[in-house]
Design goal:
The complex is a heterodimer.
Chain A (H helix, E strand, L loop, with lengths): L4 E9 L2 E6 L2 E7 L1 H10 L5 E5 L8 H13 L4 E4 L5 H10 L3 E4 L1 H5 L2 H10 L4 E10 L2 E6 L4 E6 H11 L3 E6 L11 H10 L4 E4 L5 H9 L5 E4 L1 H10 L13 H4 L5 H4 L8 H10 L12
Parallel strand pairs in A: 1-4, 1-12, 4-5, 5-6, 6-7, 7-10, 10-11, 11-12
Antiparallel strand pairs in A: 1-2, 2-3, 7-8, 8-9
Helix pairs in contact in A: 1-2, 8-12
Chain B lengths: L3 E4 L7 H9 L4 E4 L2 H6 L2 E4 L5 H10 L2 H10 L4 E4 L1 H4 L2 E4 L5 E2 L4 E7 L14 E6 L23 E6 L1 E5 L5 E7 L2 E9 L2 E4 L7 H11 L3
Parallel strand pairs in B: 1-2, 1-3, 3-4, 4-13, 5-7
Antiparallel strand pairs in B: 5-6, 7-10, 8-9, 11-12, 12-13
Classes of the chains: A alpha/beta, B alpha/beta.
Chain lengths: 291, 214
């Protein structure tokens, strides 16, 4: 059995780490950097940054966050959101990203995946698919879940492999932010179809969900956000290090919103998740805790 | 001051290697200048991408002779990922191509196991463990792995693996799918690792630290 990767996903809006439900209603949680470094120290296997509103804002914030991360967190970093050209990719790689995740840019111009793979190598081109159930079918969406496409997800995944993608980041919009668990059918269908690694994303609320995604969803890596973010938030005392941009409801309620998810979300740290998986026969990298 | 040079031939994310050296308090210079490389005390040969193109890029920049000249002085060279593969005689990636031939052996693709799902996909992308050949940990004394415990995890991204002709050039072994492959190689001061130390957390940084004391 090979090691399964545990990948914290950090959604970025401007200078802040945000989290929404079904990719919408983003609320500010804090500074991305603080969370990323915490996850590095806890033994995260990779980090994933997604710029949630890349098309609406300048990208300097993101490049700064990537640069700062790559100077102190020596694990692979994937960055996505608003990538439309080879220059966008080059800028992110030069800032310190190891891989880029491309969704909207690939739908708009599938050749971008091929060109990017030729120039930078398949290993750094992660095709991002955001899927939603529409009339019994899994349909790909773009613009962070806002725009529907004509692509059926399984066929699109196969096409992305042929285009030259090195990995697939598969997010279920239906499950995302709900804490009810991954879309296991969707994960398994894609993981069994493509010969490249699949990162499952969307819906994780407790450690059992990771196990299901690996055993039933058959993914090669599991990404999650709320479960880790809220665990970290419950541990930090100073909760005022953020910038006033975006939805501050969560902060203004003095973390009261933690209760809103309490029934479904069981905040858990990375070492505990890995320990749980290891106890259930899943191989994880256990020697990654820093310090 | 000792000079550490990261060979820039247009392949791969070399900035992260430079940042890793900064993190251990060392300054590594990125250069594609043959003279700078010949004069260096330590060189890092990075690389991500295809074997054939990498050799062409080295040749175009007149860096092959520079590397040979550096190696003749018995100074330490560390090849990383594709940079390790380039040290070998030849590769079967997209045809048949000759490498630097500093270590005898070939580079071939992983054998594909007949399994679906999350078993063993190619490329290998992720963390995997290093073991000394024949469980002989003493082989790691005085090498880049001297501070590393057997079984430690490092980050790999690759579809091809190195097969040294001479077993004495195998510094560590790693198992993936149905293959046990050479994950680190050495021949005197010529070293290579298939994994990315700069992406392997503190243990990876330790390898760069220990490379500088070779």
């Amino acid at each position: 059995m090979k090691s399964i990767r545990i990948i914290p996903r950090l959604d970025i809006k401007g200078p802040n780490l945000v989290k929404g439900i079904h990719l919408e209603g983003l609320r500010v949680l804090g500074k991305p950097w603080d969370f990323a470094y915490k996850y590095y120290q806890e033994g995260a296997d990779e980090l994933l940054y997604i710029d949630a509103v890349a098309s609406l804002y300048g990208r300097n914030n993101l490049l700064d966050i990537v640069k700062k991360t790559s100077e102190s967190a020596f694990i692979p970093l994937t960055v996505g959101g608003g990538i439309r050209s080879l220059d966008d990719i080059k800028n992110l790689l030069n800032a310190g990203a190891d891989k880029v995740a491309i969704n909207t840019g690939a739908i708009a111009d599938p050749e971008l995946i091929t060109q990017a793979a030729q120039v930078f190598g398949s290993q750094c081109i992660v095709a991002s698919i955001q899927s939603k159930h529409i009339a019994g079918k899994q349909i790909a969406f773009t613009d962070n879940g806002r725009e529907i496409t004509s692509y059926e997800v399984v066929a699109w995944a196969k096409q992305l492999v042929e285009l030259g993608a090195g990995e697939i980041l598969l997010t279920s919009i239906d499950c995302e932010g709900t804490g009810r668990g991954y879309d296991l059918e969707l994960l398994e269908e894609i993981a069994d179809t493509v010969p490249i690694p699949v990162i499952g994303c969307g819906g994780c609320g407790n450690q059992e969900h990771f196990l299901e995604a690996i055993q039933k969803g058959k993914v090669d890596a599991v990404s999650a956000s709320s479960i880790f973010h809220y665990k970290y938030l419950s541990e930090i005392l100073d909760f005022n290090d953020y910038e006033a941009e975006g939805n501050l409801e969560f902060k203004n309620q003095n973390r009261g919103s933690l209760n809103f998810m309490a029934s479904r979300l069981m905040p858990t740290g990375i070492p505990d998740v890995k320990g749980y998986l290891q106890n259930h026969g899943i191989k994880c990298r256990m020697d990654g805790v820093v310090g | 001051m000792r000079s550490i040079v990261i060979v820039d031939y247009g392949m791969g994310n070399i900035f992260s290697i430079q940042k890793a050296f900064s993190a251990i308090g060392e300054t590594a210079v990125i250069s594609s200048c043959a003279t700078t490389i010949k004069k260096a005390d330590f060189i890092i040969l990075p690389g991500v991408g295809a074997f054939e193109r990498a050799m062409k890029e080295l040749k175009t920049r007149n860096l092959i002779e520079a590397i040979y000249s550096f190696v003749q002085k018995q100074r330490p060279l560390l090849g990383i990922c594709l940079g390790m593969q380039l040290l070998f005689t030849d590769s079967t990636e997209f045809g048949h191509h000759f490498g630097l031939d500093l270590i005898k052996g070939s580079v071939t693709k992983f054998r594909k196991p007949e399994e679906a799902g999350n078993r063993f996909k190619i490329p290998q992308i992720g963390w995997n463990s290093l073991y000394p050949p024949s469980q002989n940990k003493s082989l790691w004394q005085g090498t880049i792995l001297k501070s590393i415990e057997a079984g430690s995890s490092f980050y790999f991204v690759h579809s091809y693996v190195c097969k040294p002709e001479n077993k004495e050039n195998i510094l560590s072994e790693t198992i993936y799918g149905i293959d046990t492959f050479c994950s680190a190689t050495y021949s005197n001061a010529i070293l290579g690792c298939q994994f990315h130390p700069e992406k392997s957390g503190p243990k990876g940084l330790q390898i760069y630290q220990d490379f500088l004391s070779i």
